[in-house]
């Protein structure tokens, strides 16, 4: 049965690969990353991954991950070489705070009466909600904030001049 583990970036976790009557069966642990690439992590007692953050708990079939990173997210497959093969699959979801960046120039000089679109994007897990606000007070629409990837100001004049903030929250 597949389990899903959800952790925040920086936390530690244990992915169990225990099966009944394991005996001398060789355990192979693979990871299929969010990019679809397969990575061999462990074969028996031999570590294949080149990171100190992944370890097998002594005398067990438990994979420990310290200081989880977004790149650790994916599907972990615990494979036992039997006939037929026995596999346990676990999904790891690593959550992290959003980062925001402008997708257009951060400063605009606009002629009176024309329009301008401000835009930014955010990366985070879970996906972030982007909100626009204005440092000097309400947006030209009268709202305190507005959701969306972009904010278009139409028919601008000196009353819409100011600093517009793009923030993200997840």
UniProtKB/TrEMBL annotation:
Domain of life: Eukaryota
Gene3D superfamilies: Immunoglobulins (2.60.40.10)
Protein name per its UniProtKB record: Ig-like domain-containing protein
Lineage, uppermost ranks: Eukaryota, Metazoa, Ecdysozoa, Arthropoda, Crustacea
Stored SMART domains: IG, IGc2
InterPro entries (alphabetical): Ig-like_dom (IPR007110), Ig-like_dom_sf (IPR036179), Ig-like_fold (IPR013783), Ig_sub (IPR003599), Ig_sub2 (IPR003598)
Domain spans labelled Ig-like: 1-78, 98-170
Pfam families (UniProt xref): Ig_3 (PF13927)
PROSITE patterns: IG_LIKE
């Amino acid at each position: 049965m597949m389990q899903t583990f959800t952790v925040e970036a920086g936390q530690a976790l244990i992915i169990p690969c225990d099966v009944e009557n394991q005996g001398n069966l060789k355990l192979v642990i693979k990871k299929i990353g969010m990019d679809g690439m397969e990575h061999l992590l462990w074969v028996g007692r031999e570590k294949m991954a080149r990171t100190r953050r992944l370890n097998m708990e002594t005398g067990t079939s438990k994979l420990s991950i310290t200081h989880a990173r977004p790149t650790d997210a994916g599907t972990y497959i615990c494979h036992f070489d039997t006939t037929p093969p026995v596999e346990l699959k676990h999904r790891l979801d690593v959550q992290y705070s959003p980062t925001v960046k402008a997708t257009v120039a951060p400063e605009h000089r606009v002629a009176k009466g024309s329009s301008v679109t401000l835009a930014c994007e955010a990366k985070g897990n879970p996906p972030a909600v982007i909100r626009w606000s204005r440092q000097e007070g309400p947006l030209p629409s009268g709202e305190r904030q507005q959701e969306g990837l972009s904010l278009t100001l139409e028919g601008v004049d000196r009353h819409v001049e100011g600093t517009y903030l793009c923030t993200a929250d997840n």
